[in-house]
Design a protein that fits this description.
By secondary structure, the protein is of the alpha+beta class. It has 2 domains: about 80 residues, Glutaredoxin (3-Layer(aba) Sandwich); about 120 residues, Glutathione S-transferase Yfyf (Class Pi), Chain A, domain 2 (Up-down Bundle). A 4-stranded mixed β-sheet has the order 2-1-3-4, with helices on one face. A hairpin with a 2-residue loop joins strand 3 and strand 4. It is globular and about 50 Å long. The chain binds glutathione (GSH). The site of glutathione (GSH) has 12 residues, from helix 3.
């Protein structure tokens, strides 16, 4: 199987982490988002949406990181995606919650407009209003995540690691680029520390820290 990805990509890193943890062999093809390789005809033929990640399994092609995680986990029988109907439904629910709620406001609303030029609103007042709106919405999601979803559990869906954890940590860690501080949410902070303590974390995220976090080390951002 082959994965088209970029090392800084929020939606590629969860797949790389799952593959590293579970020993899933993937051929890697970097699509250089920094030089616009994803916008070129060659990659547009792979994904009309011009985004990574894309998985190829023979002549089957799959986009959407959430769908790719589920496909890989199911195909390989990963313990991170148990076959039990209700356990699996809970994991799917949590991934949808991240994808449609928290990521929209935290990622697309608060982080990306501050670090990615194509997400920045041209009008400064619009930019500020968008950041303020997204911050409030993100804070609400983070409170729910901390208190109601994680609570006393070790992981997002109870005390067993699941693909929802891989998916979620990609999104939360993207906040490190804009220096987001999650300390006010203790259960969330504990879970983030647990995920970042995985032996594979450093190797999988080396490019993220080198090419995305480090360049913004001294920049000032609107926080949480
Ligand atoms: N919903 C998609 C989002 C994929 C996505 O946003 N990919 C980003 C990298 S994290 C990308 O390729 N961005 C390039 C662009 O949109 O121009 C998924 O979960 O796979």
């Amino acid at each position: 199987m082959k994965l088209y990805y970029h090392p800084v990509s929020t939606t590629s890193r969860p797949i790389l982490l799952l593959a590293a943890d579970d020993g899933i062999a993937l051929e890697h093809e970097v699509v250089d988002l920094f030089t616009g390789a994803h916008l070129q005809p060659a990659f547009t033929r792979v994904n009309v949406s011009q985004q990574v990640p894309v998985l190829e399994d023979g002549d089957f092609r799959l986009t959407e990181s959430s769908a790719i995680l589920k496909y890989l986990a199911e195909k390989t029988g990963s313990s991170a995606y148990p076959a039990d109907l209700q356990k699996r439904a809970r994991i799917n629910e949590t991934m949808d919650w991240f994808n449609t709620g928290l990521y929209r406001d935290l990622g697309y609303g608060l982080v990306y407009p501050q670090v990615l030029p194509n997400f920045k609103r041209e009008d400064a007042a619009v930019q500020q209003a968008n950041l303020a709106w997204s911050r409030e919405k993100a804070r609400r999601w983070l409170g729910i995540l901390d208190k109601d979803i994680i609570g006393d559990n070790a992981y997002l869906c109870g005390n067993d690691l699941s693909i929802a954890d891989y998916f979620g940590i990609g999104m939360l860690s993207a906040g490190e680029v804009a220096h987001l501080d999650y300390a006010q949410w203790p259960n969330l902070s504990r879970w983030i520390a647990t995920m970042k303590a995985r032996p594979t974390w450093g190797q999988v995220n080396e490019g993220f820290y080198t090419y995305f976090v480090a360049p913004y080390k001294d920049a000032a951002f609107e926080g949480l």
